[in-house]
Each structure stands twice: as C-alpha cells, then as structure tokens.
Amino acid sequence: MKILGRIKKSKVLTAVMTAVLIFQSACPAGLAYAAQKSGVSTYAAGQTIDQALGATKTVESVLSQHENDEYYLTTPYGNKGPHGEDGAIDTWDCWKPKGEYGSGAYMNCAGFVVAVLRACGANTSIIGNYTAKDGYNRGNEANASKWEEYCRDNNAVSYTFSSKEQMLASGILEKGDIIYMEPVDWNHSNSDCHIGFFWGSSSSEDLYWHSSSHADGIVKGYFPNSAGGNVISKITPKYPVRYYRVIKTLHKGYLTLHKDSSNKTLTDANDCYSLAGAEYGVYTDSNCSNKVATLTTNASGNANTVSLNPGRYYVKETKAPKGYFTDSQVYTADVSGANRESSPVKLSVSDNPANDPMSMLLGKFDGQKTYNGAGNLPQFRYPCRCRVHRRLLRHP
C-alpha cells in the first residue's frame, strides 16, 4: 500500500504508524481528508505546474543561464534540515544551490525543483502545504511525492508513460519539463521516487538535469562526494520505475503578423506606397502601456517573429509605413507554448492608404465662345495625368 510504504520509508515508529492506519481505517475517507487538509488548491484547468504556482519566468530560461557554471551543478546531494542529514522530513530545507549557499549547499531531487521554480518566481509553498485527496500530507515541498500528488489531483498538464523508451518516443518532452518517476514498490527499504528536469535538445534525447545519489552517463557536473550531487546525465531513476509522469512547464510561444493594404487597387505597383517599415508594439495590457516586443514589417508585409511567455498580448501600430495612415485598432493575440517558432500566432492586419480624391469639371469653348449648334465640338476626349508631390503624402 502506498501510504504504508511511505510511512515505513520515513522510519516512523511502528506504534505511530499503527495509530495512523487505525485512524484512517476507522474514519470515513472524507472525514480523514477533512481532518488533515491544510490548504485548498487554486489550480486552474489547463495550467502548467509553474503557471499554477505563479512563475513569471520559464524553467528553460532560468536553467540555461547556469548550464555551464556550478550554480546548481555539483551541489552536494542531501536530505537535510536543522536537525541534520535525514532529520524529520517536515523540517527539510534541501533547496540550497551551491551558487547561493557555497559550502553550506545541499539539495535533494525535489529540493532542486524547488530552487529552480522559486528562481522562476513560483510560490512552492503551495505544494508544501497541500494535502492530497487521499489524505497524504507528509513533509513539505522537498518531498517529491507531494509534487506528484498535487499534479495528479489538480489535473496538471501532464502525461504518464510505462517506460522511458515510450516517453522519449512520444514527442511530448520539451527542455525544462519535469519528469517524475514512481517506484514499482513502496514497501522495499530502498524504494524511492525521483524528480528532475528533462534537458534534451529534442524530445527523444535522453538527458536529465537532477540531484541524485545515482546517475548514469553524466555529461555535466559531478558528484562532489559519495552521497551524490547535481548533474546532467541520462534519465536515471533511483529505483525501478512503475511509471514516468511528464509534468509540462511553461515554454516560450511565438508571435508574428502580416500586413496588407486595405485598397490594393490604389496601392499595388504604386511607388507612393510601401508596406515596409510599419512598427507594431506588443503589450501585456489592453491600455498598451507595457511594451514587451516590437514587430516590424518588410516590403512584403511580413513582420519578424518574437518569442513571448504564454499569455494574452495586445498589439497596436505605432508607426505606419510610407503612404498609409496609422491603424488605431488594438489586436489581441493569445500565445501558448504550442505556438513554436515554426508555427507562431500570426495576426492579419491592414492599413488604409492616404488618398485624397478630387472632382474636376472641364469645359471647352471655341475661339468665339458662342454656341455653334451641331458644330459645338462634341466627343472631344482629354487624357488626364496626375503627378503627386511627395510632400502631400506626409501625415502625422
């Protein structure tokens, strides 16, 4: 039984373990859950785990800054707290990376996840204070099982696989996603779950950034002592795995736009007009005051592509191209991690060309300026040519 296995692993006295089991068997499941519950999830459907915890940066962007230094890499492995190695799990604070704590650094697997997500701006105490629907509430966010329980209970964007090979072949994995590994048996004295970050450059590359007591095929970092450490290696469990859960994290999305003339009959093949040089600001607010990116069009009306954190953005023209009036409309774009650089959100926009038509009346008289009856100069045709002075095309 999962709860029994986890209690045995925590080395709780048999009497206490028995008392807990008696309490759970004597109470209805709902009552036991209510008695132990200490927090309510505010998880919104369809969110990634880091979104739910309030992250403002992506895991990939935070970790990429330290891939070639020892801020996280080589941090000693340890389950520690104020009471030392393997003290009471409720007191563990094993989220101390070497780059911040120096010689006092130590991280266990979940503690590494905590340290990184905190650097992303996430509030990991939501995990630490969470009581699962099955009543499980052991330790804090340094317990990897609490991450699994929280994601499972709240329908996090995640996927389960029966083997590593199946997971790597799925096409689901992206750099920075969390991989959790559930052991086949919680009753064995050495059984343990594991958690860390996928770090492959493609969804099939077998690379994992994690803190562990064991790692196969280390490519970056090293174990500073026999207990283990923080490394990038092959995806290596601590114990035979029952299933792998890929817990998706935020990934950058991409946005671009295409611009056309609203009156192509007037502007096509007319060198008084050009689609090149239009500029659109990309904003996080509907008032268009917090600009985070700029889109600039070329002669074909295609803009550059910008990378953005997932979310809703507002796009407004700030500079019109030659011969056009500035578009005052504010466009809305919903960007997600699914909008990769090869398939970005693409807005279609248009500008009205500057055009000031005029009326002209032509009268023809003979030299005598008298009516001449049938000889009144009928059906004369006069070609009209227009030469536009460029100054007339300027506009605010």
Number of strands: 15
Helix content: 10-25%
Spatial order of strands in the largest sheet: 3-8-4-5-6-7
User: What would the average pLDDT be, to the nearest integer?
Assistant: 83
Shape: rod-shaped
**H/E element order:** HHHHHEHEHHHEHEEEEEEHEEEEEE
User: How far is it from the N-terminal to the C-terminal residue, by CA?
Assistant: 74 Å
Major pleated sheet: 6 strands, antiparallel
β-strand percent reads 15-25%
Uncertain segments are 1-43, 390-396
Whole-number tally of structural domains? 2
Number of helices: 11
Signal peptide: 1-28
Protein name: SpaA-like prealbumin fold domain-containing protein
Organism: Coprococcus catus
Domain SpaA-like prealbumin fold: 267-339
In short, what is this structure?
This protein is α+β, with helices and mostly antiparallel strands and 396 residues long. 20% of the residues lie in helices and 20% in strands.
Key structural traits:
396 residues; alpha+beta; Immunoglobulin-like; six-stranded antiparallel beta sheet; four-stranded antiparallel beta sheet; 11 helices; 20% helix; 20% strand; disordered N terminus; disordered C terminus; SpaA_PFL_dom_1; SpaA-like prealbumin fold domain-containing protein; signal
